[in-house]
Design goal:
It is a single chain. It contains 1 helix and 21 strands. With 223 residues, it is mainly beta. It folds into 2 domains: 105 residues, Kelch-type beta propeller (Neuraminidase, 6 Propeller), CATH 2.120.10; 109 residues, Neuraminidase, CATH 2.120.10. The strands form 6 sheets. It has a 5-stranded mixed beta sheet with strand order 9-16-15-12-11, with no helix packed on it. A 4-stranded antiparallel beta sheet has the order 1-2-3-4, with no helix packed on it. A 4-stranded antiparallel beta sheet has the order 5-6-7-8, with no helix packed on it. Strand 13 and strand 14 form a beta hairpin. The model has no long low-confidence stretch (mean pLDDT 93). InterPro entries: Kelch-typ_b-propeller, Kelch_1, KLHDC3-like. It comes from Gouania willdenowi. Keywords: Kelch repeat. Pfam families: Kelch_1 (PF01344), Kelch_KLHDC2_KLHL20_DRC7 (PF24681). This is Kelch domain containing 3.
C-alpha cells in the first residue's frame, strides 16, 4: 500500500511549475511565486531534488556564449509542461506576465531548440502533456491569442520534430485548463481542470470538471 513517508523543507516555493523524473532525480522547471518578476525576460530556473540524499539543489544559470544563444534557453514562465522521452526532457508552452511561449526546448544537461515544422499549436498555458511512443501529446489549456479555453489534441513527433493536429473521433472532452492527462497503454485519460459553463470563451461562469474522459489511440489516430 502506498503511504506518505517524507516531509522536507528547502525546495522552491512554486505553483504552475513542471517537473520530470530522470533516474533518481526530479527536475523542476520554473513556476510562479508571488512577489517575483515575471515581466523581465530572464532564464528559467531549474531545481533538482535527489531522491537518494533527499536534498534540493538549484542549477546555476547557463553562461551564454559560443554555440549557446539566449534564445536556446527558455525564459522564466509558469503554466508550461515538461515530459521525458528516452533521456531527453521536452519543455513547451507556458507564459510570463507579458506573453505566451511557442518554442519547443530540449534539455539533456544543456538546452537546445530544435527546428520545428507542421501545425504548431497556439501559445497557451495550463495545458497538459504526455508521451506515447516517440511522440508528445498536448491537450487543452488557455490559448493566448484566441483568448479562450482549448480542447484540441496536438502531437509532436520527436523523430521528425513535426507538429500535427489530431482529429479524434467521438465526443471531445470539454474545453479546459489546469487539468491532468495521463497515458496508460494506448489510452489518454483527462481529468479535472477549469472550464466555462457556456463554451470555450471565458464569461466568468467557471466550472470545474469532475468527470474522467478517455481517448484511445485508434480513435485519435495516434498511430
Amino acid at each position: 500500500m502506498l503511504r506518505w513517508s517524507v516531509h522536507l523543507e528547502g525546495g522552491p516555493r512554486r505553483v504552475n511549475h513542471a517537473a520530470v523524473a530522470v533516474g533518481h532525480k526530479v527536475y523542476s522547471f520554473g513556476g510562479y511565486c508571488s512577489g517575483e518578476d515575471y515581466e523581465t525576460l530572464r532564464q528559467i530556473d531549474v531545481h533538482v531534488f535527489n531522491t537518494v540524499s533527499l536534498r534540493w539543489m538549484k542549477l546555476p544559470p547557463v553562461r551564454l556564449g559560443g554555440n549557446e544563444r539566449a534564445r536556446e534557453v527558455p525564459y522564466m514562465r509558469y503554466g508550461h509542461t515538461a515530459v521525458l522521452l528516452d533521456d531527453t526532457i521536452y519543455l513547451w508552452g507556458g507564459r510570463n506576465d507579458t506573453e505566451g511561449a511557442l518554442t519547443v526546448f530540449r534539455y539533456n544537461h544543456r538546452w537546445f531548440t530544435p527546428k520545428i515544422s507542421g501545425t504548431v499549436p497556439g501559445a497557451r498555458d495550463g495545458h497538459s502533456a504526455c508521451v506515447l511512443g516517440k511522440a508528445m501529446y498536448i491537450f487543452g489549456g488557455y490559448e493566448q491569442l484566441a483568448d479562450c479555453f482549448s480542447n484540441d489534441i496536438h502531437k509532436l513527433d520527436t523523430t521528425t520534430m513535426v507538429w500535427s493536429l489530431i482529429n479524434a473521433r467521438g465526443t471531445a472532452a470539454r474545453w479546459r485548463d489546469f487539468h491532468s492527462a495521463t497515458i496508460i497503454g494506448t489510452k489518454m485519460f483527462v481529468f479535472g481542470g477549469r472550464a466555462d459553463r457556456f463554451g470555450p470563451f471565458h464569461s466568468n461562469n467557471e466550472i470545474y470538471c469532475p468527470k474522467i474522459k478517455s481517448c484511445t489511440a485508434n480513435d485519435a489516430g495516434f498511430f
